[in-house]
């Protein structure tokens, strides 16, 4: 049975990407703010549900989170855009975590049992913190971290709390910025841009991270 797990996971992902391709074609979604905005507003009172689906399954639709979350602010305003974006991020995270834990975790444990247990022991309480930081950061790679949390069997409650606390921060940064795009040059526009830029650059305030990045850059330059 365990031999079939990787095939089942690959088949599921291929099916989801294929479905996402079909949905994009049916809805006429292009990789532009105006296209996504038109699709959402075109559904009238169903628009919030459609938008929620776009956020939750954006990876399989090949839509960047920054683009989709910003559209929420344009269409629904900063407050509602933040709420819908947060729920969408939570649904997306829960889906990836559940699939990874139900399928991938069993296969990994059977194949690399001792190594998996050692990894889980070392990460310990730090894993939910990492999930929260990556989810909150506007440029954080959410998908890989959410998948990894499921594979590593991060406790479900800790994972859920981390995502629930962090998702509104990312959603707000983009929804607030998106809500000002219809009034470029205004005070709110510059404020929202400043908030988004500050959120992206905030991790650089940590001295340890700056030193790691500097060392990594130095090694890359030396290797070149």
Structure characterization notes:
The protein is an all-alpha fold and about 220 residues long. The protein has one domain. About 80% of the residues lie in helices and about 0% in strands. It has nine helices and no strands. The C terminus is likely disordered.
In short:
This protein has 224 residues and is an all-alpha fold.
List keywords for this structure.
single chain, 224 residues, mainly alpha, 9 helices
Share in β-strands? under 5%
Number of strands: 0
Q: Which structural class is indicated by helix and strand composition?
A: mainly alpha
- General shape: globular
Please give the alpha-carbon distance between the first and last residues: 47 Å
The description of the largest β-sheet is: none
- How many helices? 9
Secondary-structure element series: HHHHHHHHH
Write down the overall mean pLDDT. Answer: 79
Extract low-pLDDT stretches.
Answer: 212-224
Indicate the percent of residues in helices: over 70%
Number of domains: 1
Cα radius of gyration in angstroms = 19 Å
């Amino acid at each position: 049975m365990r031999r079939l797990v990787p095939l089942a996971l690959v088949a599921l992902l291929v099916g989801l990407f294929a479905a996402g391709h079909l949905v994009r074609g049916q809805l006429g979604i292009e990789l532009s703010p105006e296209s996504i905005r038109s699709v959402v507003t075109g559904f009238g009172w169903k628009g919030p549900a459609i938008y929620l689906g776009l956020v939750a399954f954006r990876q399989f639709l090949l839509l960047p989170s920054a683009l989709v979350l910003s559209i929420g602010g344009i269409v629904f305003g900063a407050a509602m855009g933040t709420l819908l974006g947060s729920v969408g991020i939570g649904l997306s995270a829960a889906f990836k975590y559940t699939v990874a834990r139900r399928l991938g975790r069993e296969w990994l444990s059977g194949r690399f049992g001792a190594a998996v247990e050692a990894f889980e022991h070392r990460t310990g309480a730090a894993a939910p913190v990492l999930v929260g930081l990556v989810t909150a950061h506007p440029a954080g790679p959410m998908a890989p971290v959410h998948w990894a949390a499921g594979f590593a069997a991060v406790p479900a409650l800790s994972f859920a709390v981390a995502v629930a606390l962090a998702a509104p921060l990312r959603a707000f940064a983009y929804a607030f910025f998106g809500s000002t795009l219809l009034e470029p040059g205004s005070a709110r526009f510059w404020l929202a841009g400043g908030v988004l830029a500050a959120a992206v650059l905030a991790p650089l305030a940590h001295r340890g991270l700056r030193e790691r990045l500097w060392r990594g850059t130095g090694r890359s330059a030396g290797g070149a």
